[in-house]
Amino acid sequence: MKKILLASLALVLSGCASYPDNVSVADGTELTSFEEVSKSDSALIGKTVRWSGIIAKVSNEKKVTKFDVLYYPASTNGRPKTSDQPLGRFRVVMEGFIDPAIYKQGKAITALGQLKASETAKIGEYEYEYPTLISKNIHLWGPLQKAPQVQFNYGWHGVQPNWYWRGGVRHVYIIGQGKTKSPAAQAKPKLSHD
């Protein structure tokens, strides 16, 4: 019974947070972390990586597009956790033209690919060595949506234990999606009688 419970719990939890299909890998695939590559990447060339971050720069060259990305650790679904400290930068190289109006600076991405030799480029006057990956799959994350919050206001009389007490009106405030609605601003429901 205990094994069945643990197996069902593992199955339920594995379905809760998974990476998007275009950057997911088969179970058991060994992924190289950003921290490992930062130490010495020459021995790791060809290894599979899946990194997340915020686009700092997009460069379209003749046959490839290069993304300079500020690395953030990934959350359980692959989205960069921008509440954490960035750990450095990396470069993503993709074949062909990728529209910089869609994949623009400040957007969150997760990239899956193979490591290649590091590339050096300037950030201002500083020569920065970018751990670089060749990618065929990038996931562009949309804006993060906050769930609306519902708050109850019981008025000056507080919470009454008896449901039939008619001492006041309970107001409901819905806060979310950038708007706050008070009871006076909410539309009254229309009732129709046949």
UniProtKB/TrEMBL annotation:
Record NCBIfam families: slp
Span of the signal peptide: 1-19
GO cellular component, one term: outer membrane
Entry-linked Pfam families: Slp (PF03843)
PROSITE patterns on file: PROKAR_LIPOPROTEIN
Keywords tagged on the record: Signal
The name this protein goes by in its record: Starvation-inducible protein
